[in-house]
Design a protein that fits this description.
Layout lengths: L4 H9 L2 H21 L13 H7 L4 H12 L4
Length: 76
């Protein structure tokens, strides 16, 4: 079964406490940007690292791209 990038990072690369801190800091940055400036009319996401993730996980490139897309569209 395919795992999300977040699950992969939490389970093999970074300790839980580090991931929690990264998530908290990212949320603070987003809130700060929205509080201090006009709300953007559009947003772009650069899907970088999907091929490297797939290669590291010994899977096809398309699986890495699919995992990246599925992670991006998650509501949480």
């Amino acid at each position: 079964m395919l795992r999300s990038i977040e699950q992969y990072l939490r389970s093999t690369v970074l300790p839980e406490s580090v991931m929690d801190n990264v998530e908290r800091i990212a949320n603070r940055i987003v809130v700060s940007v929205l509080k201090n400036g006009p709300i953007p009319h559009h947003m772009a996401f650069i899907m970088d690292g999907n091929r490297r993730y797939a290669k590291k996980g010994a899977m096809a490139k398309i699986e890495g791209h699919a995992l990246g897309f599925n992670t991006l569209k998650k509501p949480d």
